[in-house]
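For the sake of transparency, this paper describes our internal protein records without simplification. Such a record has a labelled line for the sequence and another for the backbone structure tokens. Nothing more is needed to write down the fold, since each code stands for a local backbone conformation. For reference, a complete record is included directly beneath this paragraph.
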Amino acid sequence: MQTSLLKKYCDGRLPWYTIYPTVPEFSETVGANTCEKWLSRLPDESVSLYLHIPFCRSICWYCGFTTALTRRDAPILGYLEVLRKEIDLVAKKTPQAMPVSDVHFGGGTPTLIEPAQFLALMTHLRGCFAFKKAATLAIEIDPRTFTIRMAEALGAAGFNRASIGVQSFDPVVQRSINRTQTEAQTTRAVETLRQHGISRINFDLIFGLPNQTVQSCVQSAMTAVAMRPNRLAVFGYSHVPSYMKRQRMLDEMALPDDAARAEQASAMADTLVAAGYLQIGLDHFALPDDELALAQKAGRLRRNSLGYSADTCRTVIGLGTSAIGRLSDGYVQNELATSVYSDHISAGRLPTSKGYCLSDEDRLRAAVIERLMCYLEVDVSAICTAHGFDPVPFLSSAGRLPMLAEDGIVDIHHGTIRVKREHRYVLRAVAAAFDAYLDRSPY
């Protein structure tokens, strides 16, 4: 991609558009009472559950998630006790025991939970919700602390997908980000999972980290391919030290510039595609028989707070600190601080800290942005008609579209917008043209 276009459109401030409107638009006017009301009128259809476990044994300096360091199990046990109470509170607010088709444990490191405690938590969840027989149960794993006993517990609980944090196999990069993880540790985790029936494996890789090069990115991708995960997410590192203080530990002088990041992303994509993976949306790759690839082929690919997904549920119930839920009426987010989260639940209140009530126009813009992020093209006219909007003024309001077309980033024809494949890297800039809340000043 031309350097001039990278400078123009690679704006690190742009959202990743996993949800729309994005979290900065959330307001404290949406609190526990609002969340309770929204839960009470959920439709009788399948929901997804997201459970956030915020604890880690060590802190990775690049990480942008809400996590806490603990060397002991006591804080985890205390947190689980509160989490079970939140599950009870939420289940009592819904019209009935909601059918569940997808569960995802994120973190942090969910597999730090002791196996017996984890199985007890799953039993509690199943007692509060109506799990479907074919439900997808997924969990995030740090290979450095993963044990055979935990693999046995996951198998016994019916888990069928695991997401393994790798980021980079380059020892130099690993030392730069405070995450030393050997290839052998990752291989052992993959083999252990498969031996216990968890056959669907995801890998997370990152480009744009300190001291990363195109060569080291390609080598990490090739090392990952040798383990044959079903899918990979290849994220671009977001450096926001003003927001995430831990990122101040990174050497900013060792961070690659936009041109180098684009070259790294392209080289990793080429490596994975050459190995038989299909590129999904902006930054995911999947084997042709993986649910993500099948969902893309069938037109069912979705984008949510976890990234690209084959999960078609309209409702996501978030549990645990900082967890984001998507309900029929809008978004809700739990308290970030564990102590405040616990205080609310101890008082018998939902721990909602803020949220957003969706308007009809928000739903329209969300649909357009999601389609773009999933398929690199969108029939704006058709979506406007489906939502009861006139496409002509709506398209006119997307002021950056003519500039994007003039620069050869997109083609626009009869209300359909297509992002050229060679410009996939700046897909977020195209989506931003439909963001009503983003600063509209030129790049």
